[in-house]
Design brief:
The protein is mainly α. The protein has helices at about 10-35, 40-60, 65-75, 75-90, 105-125, 130-150. About 80% of the residues lie in helices and about 0% in strands. It has one domain (about 10-150). Helix 1 (about 10-35) packs antiparallel against helix 5 and helix 4 packs across helix 5 (about 105-125).
């Protein structure tokens, strides 16, 4: 959301949330896929974190941008699958996306969507142009898709 002076959130806010979300999203990701953790524990941890982040997003970016975040997430379903699979292959031995039931993927998918949204908003704030930010974010996505396709 724009401040009283019409400016977007300060860059420090983005950096804080990128680091903070990396920690909580990473722990939520790990809790979702570690076999020793009961699913309810993972669901409670991730559910509370996602709720708090969505409240902050609504305050910082407004309802319109958060709505479109979820619309683009539905469109980018394959990207979310690739990112989850990529992270799983790095941090877990013998990783296979299909070895886990669908409900185990929900919280990590939401974390991926929210993190990529934050990155896109940060790029927008740096270049100060929605068109250039979209272009840079699409280029970043194309590079990621190419990498995931090659691996």
């Amino acid at each position: 959301m724009l401040g009283k002076d019409g400016k977007r959130p300060h860059k420090f806010v983005y950096l804080f949330f990128l680091v903070h979300m990396f920690a909580f999203g990473g722990s939520g990701f790990a809790l979702a896929y570690i076999d020793d953790v009961p699913f309810m524990m993972a669901a409670m941890h991730s559910g509370i974190a996602i709720f708090v982040y969505i409240v902050f997003y609504l305050v910082l970016f407004g309802v319109g941008r958060v709505f479109w975040m979820f619309v683009f997430a539905i469109v980018g379903f394959a990207q979310t699958y690739f990112v989850i699979n990529f992270i799983g292959e790095i941090f877990f031995n013998n990783w296979d996306f299909d070895n886990y039931p669908f409900y185990r993927h929900i919280a990590p998918a939401v974390f991926v969507v929210m993190y990529l949204f934050l990155v896109r908003e940060f790029i927008y704030d740096i270049v100060k142009s929605d068109g250039r930010a979209n272009f840079l974010f699409l280029c970043l996505n194309a590079v990621l898709y190419g990498y995931f396709y090659m691996v």
